[in-house]
Design goal:
The protein is mostly helical. It has 2 domains: 154 residues; 107 residues, no CATH class. Helix 3 runs parallel beside helix 5 and helix 3 packs across helix 9. The chain is globular and about 60 Å long.
């Protein structure tokens, strides 16, 4: 593929992945998750004017079709691929690329929210509470409820759920951005690896990636905070606890990738094995990955065997 053809192809894919969810919000969710990948390719391999032009067109269309309600979401998803592309240009490691592509957009988004709250003279917490309540009301209207359910019980359950979502919202938002950026980074890495010649963005093996051992103390501290008689510390503890679980899940997935590569199966066979495992034991598999990532500090799963798993 020539450079010019690649630019046109990535621009077209980016527009499709961004605008399809506008037409089909539910079915197009998968496209919105991978929408940053083409922009990352454009930004990492080609002059900035191409990715910025495509991005400006997409933002203009989204704001015209959906209005200012999507401004904060658009702001984040506009920044994340640009930051990731710059990190790839600078040959950052996997961890640094993901961290910066999450931290910088999240930080700027928080500053934007603070500025907007000052402009409308309302606290950021009030704005977030109102948004969550409106979303829960829409979900309640669209969700069919049993006729035997008292209206007061439903209202109480919705209010309790809103409070729970508000409590762990920071962790849920960062997790959403984290996993989205990881998926897009893997897609971009796979695409660059298939080029002729391959465009190497980081020589580190994905199966060898691991977290720092010191994170276990953050995990333990968050667990202690959950048991303290303070609502503020409990809220902080829950958010930190959820985030560390998400990181250990990624660590466990890296371990799984390491061992899957050692199986005497073709790539298609490995994908089929993963699909069957998730189909029949998805939650158990996720818990196993989290446990493997956590206990890898002491057991070091990737040094126990140097020969193929199955002879």
């Amino acid at each position: 593929m020539t450079s010019r053809t690649e630019r046109y192809a990535m621009a077209l894919l980016s527009c499709l992945f961004t605008l399809i969810p506008v037409i089909a919000p539910v079915r197009g969710l998968i496209f919105s998750m991978v929408a940053p990948a083409p922009l990352v390719v454009l930004g990492a391999k080609h002059p900035w004017r191409y990715s910025l032009s495509v991005l400006a067109f997409e933002i203009a269309v989204l704001l015209f079709v959906q209005g200012s309600a999507v401004f904060f979401t658009v702001f984040y998803y506009a920044l994340a691929p640009l930051v990731m592309a710059q990190a790839i240009r600078l040959r950052y490691s996997i961890a640094r690329t993901i961290v910066w592509s999450v931290v910088i957009p999240c930080g700027l988004n928080m500053l934007l929210l603070a500025g907007y709250s000052a402009f409308v003279q309302e606290t950021p917490l009030t704005l977030i509470e109102r948004t969550i309540e409106s979303l829960m009301q829409v979900a309640q209207e669209r969700m069919p409820l049993p006729e035997s359910s008292p209206e007061e019980d439903v209202t109480t359950a919705v209010k309790s759920m809103s409070q729970m979502i508000l409590m762990i919202l920071p962790a849920m938002m960062i997790m959403n951005f984290l996993f989205t950026n990881v998926v897009n980074y893997l897609i971009v890495r796979w695409y660059f690896g298939r080029g002729q010649p391959p465009f190497v963005i980081d020589p580190q093996d994905l199966g060898a990636w691991h977290l720092t051992d010191h994170l276990v103390w953050v995990f333990v501290t968050s667990g202690i905070m959950l048991m303290l008689p303070s609502s503020l510390l409990n809220t902080v503890g829950w958010n930190v606890f959820i985030l560390t679980l998400a990181l250990y899940l990624l660590h466990g997935i890296a371990i799984a990738v390491f061992w899957l590569r050692r199986l005497p199966l073709p790539v298609s066979g490995r994908w089929l094995l993963v699909f069957i495992a998730f189909l029949f034991a998805g939650p158990l598999l996720l818990l196993t990955c989290i446990a493997a990532g956590l206990f890898d500090i002491w057991l070091d799963f990737r040094r126990q065997r140097q020969e193929p798993l199955v002879c």
